[in-house]
Specification:
It is a single chain. With about 375 residues, the chain is of the alpha/beta class. Helix content is about 30%, strand content about 25%. The strands form three sheets. Strands 1, 2, 11, 12, 13, 14 and 15 form a seven-stranded mixed beta sheet that branches. Strands 6-5-4-7-8-9 form a six-stranded mixed beta sheet, with helices on both faces. It has a two-stranded antiparallel sheet with strand order 3-10. The radius of gyration is 20 Å and the shape is globular.
Length: about 375
């Protein structure tokens, strides 16, 4: 079966959104150097958040080894942040980095500056210590969020454990109040090891549709979980580059859905089967799935609908090709990043879609 490839995914260390290939070439090759030298213009980027806040757990539990490597979780986190900051586009976005065990600002929320953020990352503790005061972190978020406008992505590194101080509310209760007052999404970067810890995190993730749990190792190894929470590349944008270094991903044709539907039409099964067969044959690869909706209806409902569409595609690939969870990255955006005019029926039909990319190829370009 022919594997149809329409583009390279923009991703080396942190980027993962699809771009169409140039005429006359099967693949567009995008590299770290292309990004640094602004081959990818800011005008090609659609922000999915206006503010980003990282809350870092530096309690004793972060001294545990990361997988089987000779680095701790805290060191692995610091290394990943350095790499992602290095090629983060200079977006008009506010950013903040805080340690919350105990609370300490490393980079108080302010406009993103690559050099200053790098210095803040270098200032992270090298050794974890003490207990986790997660509720205090949530409480300290309130006055910060109150000063911000637009959507805020809060990346919260946590194992779900917490120590309650006097008169403090449970973290899930604090998170629910924050979600009620502010436009905030919680990305829970989980190091949970027990059912109780997982339950604590699920209660936080349930406060709204855009919040979710991401296992710590996947957040480290699948940079799309980080960057796609902040931005995607404008669908249909053409990027021209002559670099020939590393192919990092492929983008396939979109899967479209009927109005208010989440069921995959039979006509797209051949496309999905081709993707599944390709990924099965390349064990180092993984599938990146972006769900979208048109602009009709309530935004929160559209966000849920785009989530269900993305999960329908992910579940198809898992069920038919035995892909484990760690080989799919599922993101959803509601009516953001339209590819066509939402004022026409034809345009809305184009916007009801799931975009699929294949990452992790890491092949030397010919």
């Amino acid at each position: 079966m022919k594997f149809k490839m329409s583009a390279i995914l923009l991703a080396l260390v942190i980027l993962a959104a699809g771009l169409p290939a140039r005429q006359g070439s099967a693949l567009e090759i995008i590299t770290k150097e292309d990004i640094i030298h602004e081959v990818v213009p800011v005008s090609a980027i659609v922000k999915t958040a206006d503010n980003a806040i990282l809350l870092i757990d530096s309690s004793a539990s972060m001294n545990k080894p990361f997988k089987d490597l000779e680095v701790s979780r805290l060191q692995a986190l610091q290394d990943a942040l350095r790499l992602r900051n290095e090629i983060m586009p200079q977006l008009d976005i506010n950013m903040g980095l805080y340690v919350y065990t105990p609370w300490k600002p490393l980079y108080p929320v302010q406009p993103y500056n690559r050099q200053q953020v790098a210095q803040a990352i270098d200032a992270m503790p090298v050794q974890g210590n003490g207990s986790t005061f997660l509720s205090r972190a949530m409480e300290n978020l309130d006055p910060i969020l109150a000063r911000l406008t637009g959507r805020t992505a809060v990346f919260l590194v946590t194992d779900g454990q917490y120590s309650l101080e006097r008169h403090m509310k449970r973290p899930a209760v604090e998170a629910k109040e924050l979600a009620r007052k502010y436009n905030v999404c919680f990305y829970l970067i989980s190091t949970a090891e027990t059912k109780r810890q997982e339950k604590n995190l699920q209660e936080i993730a349930d406060v709204n549709e855009c919040s979710r749990i991401i296992p710590f190792c996947l957040w480290i190894e699948r940079p799309e979980y980080n960057t796609n929470a902040l931005f995607v590349i404008k669908s249909g944008e053409k990027i021209v580059t002559v670099s020939r270094q590393r192919i990092v991903g492929l983008k396939t044709d979109d899967i479209h859905f009927r109005f208010n539907a989440q069921t995959i039409d039979p006509q797209y099964r051949e496309e999905l089967d081709a993707i599944g067969e390709f990924v099965q044959a390349h064990p180092q690869t993984y599938v990146v799935i972006h769900g979208y909706a048109d602009s009709r209806g309530n935004p929160e409902y559209n966000l849920k609908l785009s989530h269900r569409r993305a999960m329908a595609v992910a579940n198809y690939l898992k069920d038919h090709f035995n892909l484990p969870d760690n080989r799919t990255v599922v993101m959803w955006y509601g009516d953001l990043n339209p590819v066509a005019d939402n004022n026409t029926e034809e345009g809305r039909a184009m916007n009801r879609r799931v975009e699929i990319g294949v990452g992790g190829l890491n092949k030397e370009a010919p």
